[in-house]
Amino acid sequence: MQVALAVVGSIVAALFDTSVAPFATIGGAKPDMVLVTSLVVAVTIGSEAGFVWAFTGGLTLDMLSAPAHPVGATVVALLLAVGVAALVARFAGRNRVVTAIVVTFPLTFVFQVAFALLVAAALGGVPVSNPVAPIFPAAVENTILAVPLALLGRWIWLRWGAYDRIEW
Question: Which of 12, 102, 134, 167 has its CA 20 to 30 A from that of 23?
Fold first, then answer.
């Protein structure tokens, strides 16, 4: 059930990313809903669900914006960011909500740089004079977006999620 919910949730996040998010730009940057939800799911719920979320959400994003994105570029960049988040969550303390919020800021930079390098390798050079300038507002916006999503995601998981039980 966890994997099925991750697939459906990531597709909804990708649809939001391509339909509503371009109209919610602040400072020239739009929120990366699939990235934020993938990171929050990986840290608060589990790495398996986070990887499924990143793969299906990235593939959906690539398919919805096919001419601009080479197929697989978003998937690889998301899997890289979620892998780092899962590694950090493994060694972080017990407060997964704070960890999810804190890792969102630097991993937005990791995702954006990896995505730009993959697009540059697939389609040719990406003309950007200052590569960090457009990423910083997106990182701030993603971190702010991660606060309610992490709180909501952890609450839902604690309320209705699976619990480890002793098997006899």
Answer: 102
Q: How many whole angstroms separate alpha carbon 116 and alpha carbon 83?
A: 18
Q: Phi/psi at 70 (nearest 5 deg)?
A: -70, 140
Each domain of the chain, given as residue ranges in start order, spans: 2-160
| pLDDT of residue 162 exceeding 70 | no
Across 104-121, average pLDDT = 90
Spell out the residues 6+ positions from residue 83 whose beta carbon is closer than 8 angstroms to its own: 51
Q: What's the DSSP call for residue 125?
A: -
Residues 127, 86: Cα–Cα separation, whole Å:
32
- For the domain made up of 2-160, the CATH class stated in words is mainly alpha
Q: Is residue 161 left, alpha or beta, with left meaning phi > 0 and alpha meaning psi from -120 to 50?
A: beta
Q: What is the largest CA-CA distance in the chain?
A: 62
Given a cut of 60, whether residue 130 has pLDDT beyond it is yes
- CA–CA separation, 152 and 89 (whole Å): 18
Contacts 24+ apart (CB under 8 A), 96-100: 96/43, 96/44, 96/150, 96/154, 97/44, 97/150, 97/151, 97/154, 99/43, 100/39, 100/40, 100/43, 100/44, 100/146, 100/150, 100/153, 100/154
Confidence (pTM): 0.87
